[in-house]
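Protein chain data
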Amino acid sequence: MIKALVLEQQDGKTQASVQNISSSQLPAEDVTVDIKWSSINYKDALAITGKGKIIRQFPMVPGIDFAGIVSASADPRFHVGQNVLLTGWGVGETHWGGLAEQAHVNGDWLVPLPQGLEARNAMIIGTAGLTAMLCVMALEEGGVTPESGEVLVTGASGGVGSTAVALLHQLGYQVAAVSGRQQNAEYLLSLGAKYVIERNSFSDAAKPLEKQSWAGVVDVVGGDLLAKVIAQTNYGGTVAACGLAGGYQLPTTVMPFILRNVRLQGVDSVMIPTERRVAAWQRLTELLPERFYQLATSEITLEQAPQIAADLLNGKVTGRVLVNLR
């Protein structure tokens, strides 16, 4: 028997409970992983609380991330005893996921744990950190260098934003962090932000073009805020957009893209090819300093996951939430 957080639906409402289930109940796949660590992401919180249409088939074990040890494998790429991690690929959404003591998964979805990275730290990074790294890579590929000017990070108190701030600082960028929680200013400064901007500073409706302020932007919010920062991006700048917590609509014009040569690059971490995924994980291993893992993390048990999921959606969680499944 293994312990798992199981989502069920009753009277149209999602019910989350920790249950003991048989390993035979897990979906049939070619690699079995004994999970040691998982995490709570924004998408997990939507799934667990039922506030987002993430889960369409019940029962479901949520958890889009996990790190653990292979305990059985019919895939020649992975062997018993090997340390692996998984993020994305619909796991925790359409396939039983990482908020359990064990998972059966397709070998195509796994990444060998990079040398020098502990499994616990891999889940402090998780999907959020992988997404942040892909955003930073998008800025680099768009030609944004530390010499180009300041880089803005929105939603900076969350998992993606926190990691983006730390990564950009390590790479020598001057980072301006946007947060709606000014009590987190010291936290963001300690991660490497040059200064912190109150989110209300961006509350006015965006003009087609505004004063040029940012060489690049990592946007986790979307909606009106994304429109605002696009209008403020420097000539030739790049905006990496990876979130829609503030809405999926984009009330902007083509003017920043045509008159200022601004690039808007969407960033997805769910279905990215394995080669790019592995490259991003290697860079995360090399770049993130030890203080990041200490500053950006809170650790919980599986039983605490439903309450933390609600807290995350209510803006009460800072940084990353690590789930201990050992």
Notes: Residues 245 and 320 are 17 Å apart (CA to CA). The domain at 126-266 is CATH 3.40.50.720 (Rossmann fold). The longest strand covers residues 31-40. The two ends are 14 Å apart (CA to CA).
